[in-house]
Write a structure and sequence with these properties.
This protein is α/β, with parallel strands linked by helices. The protein contains 16 helices and 13 strands. Strand 8, helix 9 and strand 9 form a beta-alpha-beta unit. It is globular. The N and C termini lie far apart (42 Å). It binds uridine-diphosphate-N-acetylglucosamine and uridine-5'-diphosphate.
Length: 385
């Protein structure tokens, strides 16, 4: 029987982490021929993930430049993907999430009249500018997609409200939880040596990441000031901040926080290190989408350094709080969790609204069902309460 040819297209760290389990699943299944195209919108941070999950790209556009603009990424990815699609001739293109690579990948496939499957479909803030440009990237990709793999029922509802056909949406859970299930270990030795010497029992380790475009400039400076206040006034706390390679992030963070005795700035961590650090830390402060999904399943409270989130499920469950980027708020909310045990316990419940580790398997199953290669429709993801 002819195999179904699926081309996965991605370009940044989070897309790679969330596509890796799906690529592995498709490669394991004899009914698929799976190829991988990377735009390399990220370079080092993408290669870290490919190497961890042992994935080799069949096509590599290598588009990243220092301080690239949205025009650079969109233009180069779109032009490059034309040639990739002409060579690969897939039956289906899979893109993930909300980056500019995602949108360019979906648009390129549409121009070539190739079906598009959108993984992590339907998340919305309903605010065009927050997150920027991700809200519109995700929405535009949704308009181009033929199959929508929604991680949660809320995401499905968002798509239905926009008029997307119900039979093209499938609720799968988020593949990030598939990845997390393979990386977090009871015994883990960090290759970043300093992390092996942290006293996770005696000290309160706060894991921080912040890098989003809408936080560049003043918001990021305010976040840094808030972090400094936390470290200055809470001697039991240690802040660990793996800093994104974007120079617009690094310059500010290193300038403002470098050298503080209770703030440790690190280069981007390998994903298995990141997940194991998260599993051991006291709490998380972040503007990342992925961390908002990972930390709740590990029972870690999350303070979101953004004004809005497209991931309301863990906020409803009480594990995540959206606090914005105001200096005082950053300090006060973190201090509350450091000092108020009952507030901490209230938030530190492990909840899994985002997945059960079987999202990739469901996506593969639904693709086969859609293309008529099986009569068996897989079961959708249901949150276990
Ligand atoms: C991108 C995505 C964002 C996602 C984030 C995940 C867009 C518009 N943004 O944002 O949705 O949350 O990735 O991290 O798609 N750089 C390096 N090496 C790397 C990666 C980045 O040096 O491996 C530097 C480069 O100078 C690059 C800059 O970071 O120009 C910004 O990268 P870019 O992909 O444009 O934006 P991100 O902020 O990473
Ligand atoms: N991550 C990582 N190393 C780091 C920081 C983050 O492996 O130093 C992982 C993190 O665990 C999550 C993903 O990268 O799976 C999130 O990526 P990022 O914050 O860059 O993007 P976002 O999720 O905000 O789009």
């Amino acid at each position: 029987m002819e195999k179904l040819k699926v081309l996965t297209i991605f370009g940044t760290r989070p897309e790679a982490i969330k596509m890796a389990p799906l690529v592995q699943e498709l490669k394991r299944n004899d009914l698929f021929r799976c190829e991988v195209a990377i735009t390399a919108q990220h370079r080092h941070m993408l290669d870290q993930v490919l190497s961890l999950f042992d994935i080799e790209a069949d096509y590599d556009l290598d588009i990243m430049t220092d301080r690239q603009t949205l025009f650079d990424i969109t233009g180069k990815a779109l032009a490059g993907l034309k040639h990739v699609l002409e060579a690969a001739k897939p039956d289906l293109v899979l893109v993930h999430g909300d980056t500019t690579t995602t949108f360019a990948g979906a648009l390129a496939a549409f121009y070539m009249k190739i079906k598009v499957g959108h993984v992590e479909a339907g998340l919305r803030t309903f605010n065009k500018w927050l997150p920027f440009p991700e809200e519109m990237n995700r929405k535009l990709t949704g308009s181009l997609a033929d199959l929508h793999f929604s991680p949660t029922k809320t995401a499905r509802q968002n798509l239905l409200r926009e008029g997307v056909r119900a039979d093209s949406i499938f609720v799968t859970g988020n593949t990030v939880i598939d990845a997390l299930k393979t990386t977090v270990k009871k015994e883990f030795i960090f290759s970043t040596e300093i992390l092996n010497h942290l006293d996770f029992n005696q000290r309160k380790i706060i894991l921080v990441t912040a890098h989003r475009r809408e936080n560049l400039g003043e918001p990021l400076k305010n976040i840094c000031l808030g972090l400094m206040d936390i470290a200055d006034r809470n001697p039991e706390a240690i802040i660990i901040y793996p800093v994104h390679l974007n120079p617009a992030v690094r310059d500010v963070v290193e300038n403002m926080l470098g050298g503080h005795e209770r703030i440790v700035l690190l280069p981007p961590l390998n994903t298995d290190e990141m997940h194991n650090l998260m599993a051991r830390c006291y709490m998380v402060m972040t503007d990342s989408g992925g961390l908002q999904e990972e930390a709740p399943s590990l029972g870690k409270p999350v303070l979101v350094l953004r004004r809005e989130t497209e991931r309301p499920e863990a906020v409803k469950a009480g594990t995540v709080k959206v606090i914005g980027t105001d200096r005082r708020k950053v300090y006060e909310e973190a201090s509350r969790l450091l000092c108020d045990r009952s507030e901490y316990n209230r938030m530190a419940n492990a909840v899994n609204p985002y997945g059960d580790g079987r999202a990739s398997c469901r996506i593969a199953g639904f693709i086969l069902y859609h293309f008529g290669l099986t009569d068996e429709k897989p079961q959708e993801f249901e949150v276990q309460v």
